[in-house]
Amino acid sequence: MDDTSASPSDVRASSQVTRISISMPEDLLQELDVMVARRGFESRSQAIGAMINDQLLEHKRQLGEQVMMGTITLLYDRSVKGLQKQLADLQCEHIDEVISSLHVHLMDKQMLEVVLVQGPATRLQAISDAMSTLRGVITGRLQLMAATIPPVHPLIKP
What we know:
With about 160 residues, this protein is an alpha+beta fold. The protein has helices at about 25-40, 45-65, 85-95, 120-130; strands at about 65-75, 100-105, 110-120, 135-145.
């Protein structure tokens, strides 16, 4: 697989590309090439860049206090009495971090809820944990990105 040029999608808007060289066992390289092809990456560089970005985000999340944005995705049983109110109350309690939410009614009394959040990573993890551990929640996951949303209200100065 040729990896001699970086595509525009490999480059962050304000970054220049720097070429590096890495060494790896042949079997690992073959697995990388299979993943690149299956996931539709344009190059090994794009795939490796995405993996490094994921690891850097995870590292920042673990550090704790950096302001990040992301989503809390919940799948829950909407027939569990009081669960939807508890989730709404948690969102209200954390109004500084909760930007928006969307829920979708699924089959078999299931509900998918996606909550857009922004704030210190440790606080977002605590909110996600509080929601995910409620009785009736089948699964919950916090997905973070190292980005911030512009101030929502026009009177708020950045």
